[in-house]
Design a protein that fits this description.
The protein has one domain: Ankyrin repeat-containing domain (Serine Threonine Protein Phosphatase 5, Tetratricopeptide repeat), CATH 1.25.40. Helix content is 54%, strand content 0%. Helix 2 packs parallel to helix 5 and helix 5 runs antiparallel to helix 7. It is globular and about 40 Å long. Keywords: ANK repeat, Repeat. It holds the Pfam family Ank_5.
Length: 135
């Protein structure tokens, strides 16, 4: 099995691991198999775009709403931030543009009133928090 193989939408195993918040798998794909953290799918989205996109946050919504509003948010946040750090350490570019011309940072900027000076991790945290608070 080729870990760099793409599915019908051009997503690699790394895209899926990131979307699922699977830190051990993402770590293995990046550090053992040396997958490119900037590999794009058919829409030009890298795993960092996927992490920034709201559809990824909703992949965590399998968690019961009462759990999310209680102890769940820190658990989800603590699952997402390490994946983001892992991607960034592996060289994921928060300024890489997808087919629509958006960077992962720009995807996060679609959330309200987030300053440009914030780190990518801060942006991710705020966006995730807003999504979970509105569920």
């Amino acid at each position: 099995v080729d870990p760099a193989a793409k599915d019908s939408s051009g997503r690699t195993a790394l895209h899926r691991a990131v979307s699922n918040g699977d830190l051990p798998l993402a770590d293995m794909l990046l550090n053992t198999w040396r997958l490119d953290p900037n590999e794009a799918n058919d829409d030009g989205n890298t795993p960092l775009h996927d992490l920034a996109a709201e559809r990824v946050y909703f992949s965590f919504s399998h968690l019961h709403a009462s759990w999310i509003f209680g102890a769940g948010f820190p658990a989800v946040r603590d699952k997402v931030k390490p994946v983001c750090h892992l991607l960034r350490e592996a060289g994921a570019d928060p300024e890489r543009r997808n087919a629509a011309g958006k960077t992962p940072r720009a995807v996060l900027m679609t959330w309200k009133d987030i300053p440009w000076g914030a780190t990518f991790e801060d942006l991710l945290y705020r966006a995730l928090k807003e999504v979970l608070e509105t569920m």
